[in-house]
Amino acid sequence: MSDTKRIAVIGAGFMGSMHASIFARLKGCELVAIVDPNTTLATSVAETLGGCKVYASHEELLASEQLDLISICTPDNLHLAPALAAAEKGVHLFIEKPIASSLDEAKQIVEACRKAGTKLGIGYLLRFDPRYAHAKELIATGRTGAPIHLYARRNSARTEGPKRYAGKLPLALHVTVHDVDLALWMLEGQKPVSVYAQETDRLLGPIGTQDTIAAIVRFSDGTIVNFESAWSLPSGARHMIDARLEFIGTDASFEIQCGDSGLYFADNERSQEIDTQHWPTVGGKVEGDLKRELEGVIDWLDGGNAPVASGEEAIASLELTLAMIRSAETGDVIRLS
Questions:
Q1: 49 DSSP 8-state letter
Q2: What residue ranges define each of the domains in the chain, with the CATH number in brackets?
Q3: Among residues 257, 255, 259, which one has the least CA distance to residue 233?
Q4: How would you classify the pairing of strands 192-200 and 147-157?
Q5: Are 259 and 253 a contacting pair, CB within 8 Å?
Q6: Which pTM value belongs to this model?
Q7: Helices (H) and strands (E) in the chain — how many of each?
Q8: Which of 24, 169, 218, 294 shows a CA-CA span of 20 to 30 A to 31?
Q9: Which residues of the chain register pLDDT less than 70?
Q10: Which are the contacts of 289, defined by CB distance < 8 A and separation ≥ 6?
Q11: Measured on CA atoms in the order 227, 231, 236, 240, is the torsion positive or negative?
């Protein structure tokens, strides 16, 4: 691999445009191309970054370019084909979470990268939020003692996720899966053994998604984890994302409060929080957790120990999230092996 990483981004939408913006200015990286069947959109993104090549498909990209890394930011159900093609070409992969929309496709991606000897990382952004990263260290270094209970909440306004993604994927696969990955990461060595969930779609059912999902999961050593996710806060809610994680251990507890961004803006037309955490734009540049994550990906490519989620970890989080969805749909307690 050369000192300068040649990188392409597949998907020019909300996440893909931010990935492209960050990679275009990371030291040691060259943003070679943006890929999207909507070439007008891809060209618009490329022009804002000073110009790079634009392709309509991953087939055109792989036939034309020698690459070190492809970042896949398409909808979840469209990850498989470009991932398999990139692996076959020997290109390393970074895929926005979740790894896929089905376990079968997730396993195909992991196996293809294993067979090709290419690296595979999955974009679980919150591992790069300093609050969650430090909490992980508190557990890993034994300061909390053995875990007893974990509670994870991630609620947002109906003008956020539903407006952007309505009908394209279940609430749990877009939102809850973040906290599922965090729980599995923090409770390393434990495995979920049962899950019971309930959901409602009173408000957002007509546009193809859920208002809220709540789940309780028992882990192999008896730890209980409660998950709560909603897309149904009113549009005037003070918090764009009302997120919280609480942990109780035998020796200590901690709380992570992520609702208040610290920057609240109001004028004569609206009032809102402005993101200062995940991907704030400062001086025209995307910063925050997402920049730290993609910097970590470059470190990971070079053999560093950045906490990029592996394909196997992504399969585990997808499996538990799909079990939640199945439980909510059937009303059954789902047993996991």
A1: T
A2: 5-123 (3.40.50.720), 127-273+310-335 (3.30.360.10)
A3: 259
A4: unpaired
A5: no
A6: 0.94
A7: 11, 18
A8: 169
A9: 1-2, 166-167
A10: 125, 126, 128, 129, 277, 278, 279
A11: positive
